[in-house]
Design brief:
The protein has 238 residues and is of the alpha/beta class. The protein has seven helices and six strands, in the order βααβαβαβααββα. Helix 2 packs parallel to helix 3 and helix 3 packs parallel to helix 4. It binds 3-methylbut-3-enyl trihydrogen diphosphate (2 copies) and magnesium ion (MG).
Amino acid sequence: MSDQKNGPRHVACIMDGNGRWAQARGRPRLFGHHAGAQRVRDVVKACPDLGVEYLTIFAFSTENWKRTQTEVAGLMKLFRRYIQSEARELLAAGVRVRFIGDRVRLSPKLSKMMDELELLTSRNDKLHLTIALNYGGRDEIGRATKRLAKEVAAGRLSPDDVDETTLARFLDTCFLPDPDLVIRTSGEARISNFLLWQSAYAEYEFIDTLWPDFTPAVFAETVGRYGNRERRFGAVTA
Ligand code: IPE
Ligand code: IPE
Ligand code: MG
C-alpha cells in the first residue's frame, strides 16, 4: 500500500511568503514576486533528479483579486513575462505545461499565451508542470458540478452513475494523479483553497522558509523527509 520509499511522484507547492521576503528588505511586494519566479525556474529544473514527475504550483488564487490593483496587475504582467521568457527552455527541457483555474477573469492576451504554451509543450513528458492561475478548490468543484449537472440535464449522464470518479473527471485536474506531497512555504499552516478534492490523502509539509528562499537544496531536503512517512490510506500496515 505505501509507496513513499520511491519518493513523491506528484509534488504540489503553495508558494507563499514573497511579500514578507520583500518587506524584510524594504522593497515593494512585487520585488518578492520576481524573486519567487526565479525559484520556480530552479525548482522545475530540480524535479527530474528528485524523481518528481508532476509539479503543481499555486501561482494565483481566486481570492488574490482582493489585493491592490498594483499588485494584481504586476502579478499578471509577471505571468506573461514568465511564459514569454521560459517557453523555449521549458520546451527544450521536456516539460509539459498545463494550467488549471478559471480562465474567464484572465485577460484574453494572457489566456492566449497560456494556450500557446500548452500547445507548444504538449508532446513533452519528462516533467508535468501544472500552474494554478486564478485557481480555487471550491471554485473548481463548483464549476465541475455545473458541467456535470449539464450532462445530466442533457440526458447524457444518469444521476445513478454519478460517484466520486465521475466528479473527478470534470475537475480541472482530470489529467493529473492526486498529489503525494503538498508543500507550503512561509510558516502558515493552512491550505488556502488549494487542491481541496485532490489532496484528501496527500502528505503535508509546512515549512518556515519564505518562497524566494526555497532553493533546490531546501526542496530536496523537504522532498527527502517524505520518505520517512508511512502512508496508510485508512488501512492497517503490518
Ligand atoms: C505568495 O506570496 C504569492 C502569491 C499569493 C501570488 P504572498 O504574496 O502571499 O506573500 P506574503 O504571504 O504576503 O508574504
Ligand atoms: C495562497 O497564498 C495563494 C498562493 C500561493 C497563490 P495566500 O498568501 O494568498 O494565502 P492566505 O491569504 O495567506 O491564506
Ligand atoms: Mg501569502
